[in-house]
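Notebook, student rotation project (T.W.).
Task set for the rotation: take a protein with a known small-molecule partner, predict the structure of the complex, and write up what can be learned from the model alone. Partner molecule chosen: zinc ion. Sequence and SMILES entered below by T.W., checked by me.
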Amino acid sequence: MWVQCPVCSGIDVGKVSSSNYYCWNCLVEIKYKKGNEAHIYNIQDDGTLESAYKVDLQE
Ligand SMILES: [Zn+2]
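Predicted structure of the complex:
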């Protein structure tokens, strides 16, 4: 599966789990949802995820 970061459009994206990815450029976790929607999470110092915003993916 070809994954691009929906924030920076970069391809420096690593897979975390089946629907979660990590952008090494933005340092955020990306969780893909149904309906062409991606949620962006900031990773806090203690390792927990803070919901930041969502992105509507363009086809
Ligand atoms: Zn990115």
